[in-house]
Amino acid sequence: MSRLVDYFVIVGFDHEKERGGLSNGIILQRFPEINWEDTPFHDGIEWFCQPQGWALSTERSEPRFYVSVLTDVDANRHYCACLCFNETVAITPTKPADEDEESLDSSRPVSNITHHSIMYAPKCLVIVSRQDYIDTFRNCLGIIYTVWVENLGVPLETLVGNLLGCVLVPPAGGPQVRFSIGAGDRQALQPPAAPPMPVTHNAVYMLLRLLGIHNSVTLWCAVMSEHKVLLVSLAGARLSAACRALAALMFPFRYAHVYIPLLPAGLAEVLATPTPFLIGVHSSLKEEVSELLDVIVADLDVGSLHIPAGVNIPRPEGKLLSSLQDALALVLQPELKSADSAFAPPPPSSSPPHMLDKEIRAVFMRTLAKLLQGYRHCLTIIRIHPSPVLTFHKAGFLGARGLSQCPFAVRLLDSMFFNGLVAERGPPWRPTDIWDELVQNLPEQLRLESLNPELELQHIQDLAMQLHLNENPNPQGVSTQTYSQRVLRPPEGASARIHQPPLPPLDAERVHAVIEEVTARNANNPKLSAIRLPAPRIIPPGASPTGAVEHTQLLLTNSARRLEVLRACVAATFECRYADARKSFPGVVRALRAPGARAALVRDLAARLPTNKHLLQHHQFELVVRLMNCALQSASALDEHSIAAAVLPLATAYCRKLCTGVIQYAYMCIQEHQVWTSQQFWEAAFYQEVQRDIKALYLPSPTHHHRMPSPREDDEYISLLKAQEPSALEIAAEQMRLWPSLPPEKQRELIASEESTLYSQAIHYANRMVYLLLPLEGAGRRADVRGDDADRASNSITNSVAESDSADAESGFEEADPGEAGNNVIKMVSRFVDKVCTEGGVTADHVRCLHQMVPGVVHMHLEALDAVARESRRLPPVQKPRIAWPALVAGEAGAGAALRALLLADGRGCALPQLLPAEGALFLTNYRLLFKGVPLDPYACEATVVRSFPLSALTREKGVRAAHAQLEHALHDGLQLRAATFQLIKVALDEEVSSEQAEAFRKAVARLRHPSHPLMHFALAPRAPPPADLAQPKHHTLKGFAKKTLLKTARRAGLKPKPSKRQKYVLPSSDARSLTSPPLMSSLSADTLSLEELELGGGAAEGAECAHARSLERVRERVYARDWARLGLAASPFRLSHANALYTLCRSYPAVVAVPESVSDESLRRASRCYRQGRVPVLTWRHPRTKALLARSAASHHKGVMGMLKSSSHQNPATTQSGTETTSSIEQERYLATLVSLTPASRGELDDSSLSLDSLLLCCEEQQHNHTPLLSKAAGTLGVLGRGSGGKSAGGAGATRHFGRWGSLKDRRQPSHLELYTPRARLSAVDLDAVSGEGMARRAALYVLAEKGAGGAQAGVEPVPLDYPDARATKHAFKKLLRAAAPSAPAPPAAPAADEPGFLRLVEESGWLWQLRQLFQLSGAVVDLLDVQGSSVLLSLEDGWDVTAQISSLAQICLDPYYRTLEGFRILVEKEWLALGHKFQQRSNLAATPQQGFTPTFLMFLDAVHQLQKQFPLAFEFNDYYLRFVAYHCVSCRFRTFLLDSEAQRAELGLTPDERRVDVSRLGVETCGAGAASAEGEDGRAALGLFEYVERLHQRSPLFYNLLYTPDLDNPVLRPVSAVSSLEVWEYYVSEELSHGAPYEPDLWSDDRPAPLQRRLVVAGYDSISRCMPDAFTGLLERLRQLELELGHLPQKWRVRWDQLELPNTLELQRNASMCSGLVRVATRAAHRRGTLEVLARARLAAAPPPAAHRWAPAPAAAPARCEHCADLLWGPLGCGARCADCGALCHERCADALAAPCPPRLGPPPPPDRHAERPPAAVSQQYYEQFSSNVAENRTHEGHLYKRGALLKGWKQRWFVLDSIKHQLRYYDAMEDSHCKGFIDLAEVLTVMQAPPAPGPPKKCDDRSFFDLRTSRRTYNFCASDANAAQEWIEKLQACLQ
User: Fold this and answer.
1) N or C: which end of the chain has fewer CB within 10 A?
2) pLDDT given at position 789
3) Among 405, 402, 413, 772, which residue's Cα sits nearest to residue 595?
């Protein structure tokens, strides 16, 4: 609450100074007589009481009322309301004023007034107030005048006292005030709703009515542009109202200059002031002001506007001005719309004057809002505490709005009004008003008005209503007259009374007493202190400033093509392609004329800045400086597009080295621009930097995404993250809100931090100003900043020497004279420091330090410039571009100096002859060998040629002599590097490369190619160096070698050490390390563990097994163990054995293996001695329908597995068994018999399978040529395969019944026939036949695919000797294939047409495809035996880790659809190749000792999977790129996956994988952090796996996903065509991308995605076709991602979008096979069975006498037939064939020598083909993953009863708890028999499990140590076990699952 009236003054005529009737006014009385503390009294108020002067009058005049406005030094306005009347005075006639005496008012001639006896002297009653309530002042003064005139008996002292002390006015927004000053009056006073909104009543409408629209707008523009404006009128009220109206039309601005609505005549000299003003004068002074040359005069009485000739009034730009005038016409002249209407409607009802007034104000407010749209985005906050300090980035606003050429906007932003607006409305935390809402809502209103122009008037009227409600917050009270005011008025003619006594003097004491009384009464009024001020809130920023429209001539220069040229020029500069950069420079210069292109250039240069200092080569530096100068040439001194501000940090970062210790920065070469001399530019740039630092000071979590590697590191994602950050104003608003609640210490700390920020930036910018303002040449800066270049050049060295000699090192350069230029720089920097530090509130001490620092900085920089100027004149010539290192993957680093070289064309380069040769360099890193350069062809020099391959894939390196037509010399030394990834780098070394450098390069390659230890490979490079003992030789002496050999032999023989104190037979050091390697038996010690303790029957081993149950459980959670559990191999009658937990059973086997349940660990140890490398048969897969088993092992040590069985059937076991061999043979025999007994086919339980070889013959629909004598003989001679099986064919109805549940984990069958086998006894085939009851009519339940030489048979077991591609054949085939795919020299020009046939011929001659065919045949035989015949298969070939793994993996892929998914394929590889062992070190030549050539067994398997994928494109979830990616990185050594040979070796090095992997597919966000964490070893050292990396990439994009994946569950078994003609050459062997190198490093791919409509030339062999032209699915997913980013949403993962697609209803859309597809499937199935039959037949005939050789003769042309060897088409026109004269076999001539079929004489014609083969079975229609069910009973890691306490106020209750480590849950049931759980606890949410103290209300008879707590992220569960041991066991089990 504040006073309504500050002072009441009575001013009268000063009779003592009267001269000729003229005098001055004098203050007769004022109340109160003592000044208020908050409002001092203003002297000179008497001047404004009579604006025309104080003079006596002979005529009585009516009382007059007018208001004058006084402005104090704080720009606060004080309103002086004057009521003037006349008093009668008696005057004695006197002579006129002496002519020589100077009159009081000499400025104008005044005629002498004739003195009469009765004269009238003016007297004024004046109210001085800070409140703008003019009508209330008029009423109060009228009441006092009426009481005096009418002599109403009320003391005037009471009225004045009440007026001064009684009336208190609430602030804006307060309630209505009703009061009386004591004369029986009733008055009401209503404050406005908002404080800053002016109250105009009808003033604005009056101004427009008097002057018109054009003059009013012109006058408004003059006031807004700070011109001198003078209003002239005869009425003081008009002058006051017009000034009030003009000030109101400026809202939200406040008029801050001279504002005098009513200027007294005695102060007319004020009009000569040079400052702008808004003044009103009486028309009597019109002639005197007409001579003012810079004053705009508006005559309100006649409506004229006079603008002097020299005054130019800026107006808004055309569109804004026209919209203002149109809107005013729409408001003031509504009839204008229908003026020309033929049928004029009724005239629209015009608004009342007070509403027209508000509508006019609304039009001007909307105009200013349009002009200042987005101004809050350009506010710069430089201090928040203790009070906010804001500045406005004027240049940035003008540039963003495109108003830099608008003088009205420029003048407005430079005005004091605008500075006041920033100070008043800039703070982001304050109460809001109508203006803030208008700025927020105007863009939407303009959009709606563009659609419907009729809405403009509606919006204006709505805003006018808000303005009206601001002046009249309670309109209903006024309309209903609920409170009628009573104001006393004198009667008419009262002022003309003759005998009216003069106004008596008032009693000051009485007035003071009344004031004191009223003030005391108001102090006790509680209503006055209950008024609430409007609450502050965050000011919305509104729309961003837009509207910048470039010049029409520059539209073309900012096109996408020119921006592309600009980026290409910058890229060429930094990639050392200077010729390309200079060629594109003219186009770049033209493009830089557009501000958008200049901004793009600066962003590109900033993005290529790696650190705060970037050292460039000379050519690069010159081009970068030239680009900067071109960008700055078009920039004005305002820098409205912030180009110069963005160049500042670049100019101080880019530099070049001239010589040792002398560096030239870019700022030394860009000084010739006017923007650097603009103080406004430096201030704006400084304030922007300070705002960024202030924001970072208060930002809770600064963004570091651009520094951290992220899976989603792209421009869209970074911009999205930045958009989510709070703005500086939002941070300031929050800090202002919290400021009052902060403790004083915290407040002082924040103030000091902000002041320190400003101080540090001031130092930084002072240095920058010195850098940019001091010229480079020394002579010029001695004379002038912009001196003559020649003079500077001639005297630079002399001045430098003189300056350096005269400088005193200890005096701080005080004696050195900086010259005139240096002094000017010091002055400018000092002014800048004073300005910014004063505004920012920097302490005086810091400012003084800055002033002392500036001269020293200038002197030091002068010395540096001298050296730079001297050295820049003698730059050495640059011969060749700098070698720029290419992009590297994470962890990759250079391993040597790069060699400048020329990449030559090889045999593959003929497709792109313009790209090769390419000039560049050959780089060597710790991971790759790569070449990067540019083509020599000038038309292709914009391209970049990259060839690279992993260093570990290098197969051969040799020196060559290169010759090329474009080389300068005939021959050059060169290198030829060939890699197993089918890459070839052939380079000619540059002449500057010496032979020593080349030899050092080759030695470095050899050293890195074969590191001395596996830990030194790139995948493990971040790890610590290997221990010293690991690098030592294995055996130091011959004695040690012999001792260890004997110990190993004894251990294999089963010998035990003698009982002695000293243990002899202990594990080797490698095994000891495996015991301590995580996560195995970490607590076992190699010093205390002997062979006796490893026996399962020993007590020590039992104790160890109990002590390390947790470790064994973790082993069982590994991938392969979980897969065996999925297949049912972990439940009865099978089990997962831990006999190899310490890798003593077999070094190459995993810690856990799947074996029959009846086979003990001791039996496994004994049987392992019969196999190579101890690789005993282990189970790896089980058929879900036939229950047949697939096992694998190594070949037998003895004469053959079947040979041993055969010999044992004819000998007496009691006489032949002796020693270890006999024992091992028995165990081997029992193991195979167990596999036979576990096969359902051996018990006749399989009803839907063909059970013999004859059934295979019967069910085949083969052609006549397929029944060769070989098959006839096999069918007639193999009596072991009887026909009396009685089983149904594979296509029977039983197939449909038994085909479900591929993923079933449970087998309910109990073991049978196992009781027939007694320990230590050999069972012969006769015994087995007797037991089974089948005799010779039996069939084989187990097929053993073994090497040749194995013979004999056993009941239920049949040996199948095979011919298979061994490792040596694979190595030779790969060598030939590599030379065919990557030839070292192009084809001779004499035979250019032979290129393609030559390649195919070389591929055929390599034998690679033939080996693939043989691999398909063997795996197909396994598929048929398992699926069709239902027999188990044991793969017992070679050492069990090459072709065994190939056949086993391929068969499982063909049989099990699960292995065709991404997850399944990974599990298959980890199980068959990693867990069960494969010699990756030897096969990939990764050992420390180099070997001869590669043996890519694993690559052949991947190629076979690729062939499968080509034949069945819908059956695989992964695509071909996934296979190529795995093939590339299996030899790259980038990942740890394929580094070592077995799990034991990985365990020794701590690389055993985690058993529990996070399923990232179920997470909603990127989980790269989790993947990295899972790859951490227990020692904290990371080694990433390939499949973890693939999983990360798969979550980010469908890079590896087959978008056509549609599993066919009706036909789940794949039977591929194995003919060579059906096999394709893999794209992996022949593809190449020269743009980025090998396409298998996604980390190196650029994130730049071309626009959807952008055209681009894509070249095969150079570009990546799949990335440049993605398929439709990938393109749509990317388009969805782009649209989500454009909408401001976080893009969803692609798999989420893919899964959201609506699939057709499978129940309505049944798969109906056509006749064609059915025939194809039947034919393929028949051909597949035929291949199986041939394999079995060859095996049976292998032991027979060799048949006669074929007698080949040319076959005449006949009908089409098929070759007996390759099954390809054989027809006369296509090629000649050969036919055997004896047996009639028919084949190609090239296949004649390779035909393995024997030649028996033809006994008769072949039987006719069977054409009644049944159609394939119809499988169930359920999806595979729907069929997968995880049985709860098999996932029970631990279970038992526990007491669980309920929630709050609930007791203990016993429940049955089940710990499930598979589903990661702790389930609980009401009872043990329940099948449905009552609830579960997700172990992912568990934080800790620990023992707990006894809880209240425990169960009875419970131990105090049986309590434990399980704390999750949501609550804590209390449990109680039966005893302490049970509680401890539960705690250990839970903790094991949490690790």
Assistant:
1) C
2) 38
3) 402
Residue 251 token pair: 């809202």
Cα 1779 to Cα 1789: distance, rounded to the nearest angstrom: 9
β-pairing, 1189-1193 vs 1342-1347, is unpaired
Distance CA 1513, CA 1507 (A): 10
Angle separating helix axes 643-651 and 679-698, nearest 10 degrees: 70
Closest to 288 in 3D by CA, of 265, 260, 262, 258: 265
Distance CA 847, CA 856 (A): 15
Q: pLDDT of 702-748, one tens digit each? A: 444 444 444 334 455 555 555 567 888 888 888 888 888 888 898 88
Q: Decide if 819 contacts 799 (C-beta within 8 A).
A: no
Q: Are 231 and 242 in contact (CB under 8 A)?
A: yes
Contact (Cβ atoms closer than 8 angstroms) between residue 1556 and residue 1117:
yes
Question: Minimal CA–CA distance to 2: which of 36, 42, 49, 52?
Answer: 36
Q: Is the pLDDT of residue 786 over 60?
A: no
Query: Which tokens in the block code for residue 533?
Result: 């001020």
Position 1224 pLDDT exceeds 50: yes
Output the pLDDT for position 1935.
86
Q: How far apart are CA 1924 and CA 1010, in angstroms?
A: 56
Residue burial 544-578, b: 16+ Cβ < 10 Å; e: rest? ebeebeeeeebeebbeeebbebbbbbbbbbbbbbb
pLDDT of residue 294: 87
H helices within 785-895, ranges in order?
A: 789-806, 819-840, 844-872
β pairing state of 654-659 and 614-616 = parallel
Task: Report which of 147, 138, 149 is spatially closest to residue 65, judged by C-alpha positions.
Answer: 138
Please report which residue ranges of 1054-1129 form alpha helices under DSSP H: 1069-1076, 1099-1107, 1109-1116, 1119-1126
Residues 1484 and 1530 sit within 8 Å (Cβ to Cβ) = yes
Backbone φ and ψ for 1649, nearest 5 degrees, come out as -105, 125
Question: What is the three-class DSSP state of 1904?
Answer: helix
- Give the pLDDT band (50/70/90) at residue 117: low
Instruction: Supply the mean pLDDT for the chain.
Output: 75
DSSP-assigned beta bridge partners for residue 984:
978
Rounded CA-CA distance 717/1649 in Å is: 13
Q: 1615: Cβ–Cβ under 8 A, 6 or more apart, which residues?
A: 1420, 1423, 1454, 1724, 1725, 1728
Which H helix or E strand runs over 422? helix 416-425
User: Which span out of 556-565, 1168-1177, 1441-1450, 1732-1741 was modeled with the highest average pLDDT?
Assistant: 1441-1450
Q: Which of 304, 313, 327, 312 is nearest to 223 (CA)?
A: 313
Q: Which of 595, 555, 495 is nearest to 85 (CA)?
A: 495
Residue 1777 near residue 1788 (C-beta atoms within 8 A):
yes
Residue range 849-892, pLDDT digits in tens: 988 898 888 888 888 888 888 887 776 555 566 777 888 888 88
At 1213, list the tokens. 């076991």
Give per-residue pLDDT as tens, 522-552: 776 665 555 666 778 888 887 777 765 543 3
> Among residues 255, 274, 373, which one has the least CA distance to residue 316?
373
Contacts 24+ apart (CB under 8 A), 1047-1054: 1051/1091, 1052/1169, 1052/1174, 1053/1169, 1053/1220, 1054/1165, 1054/1166, 1054/1169, 1054/1220, 1054/1223
Pairing of strands 1752-1755, 1777-1780: antiparallel
Q: Tens digits of per-residue pLDDT, 288-331?
A: 777 778 899 999 999 999 999 888 999 888 888 999 989 999 88
> What is the separation of C-alpha 1045 from the centre of its chain, rounded to a whole number of angstroms?
58
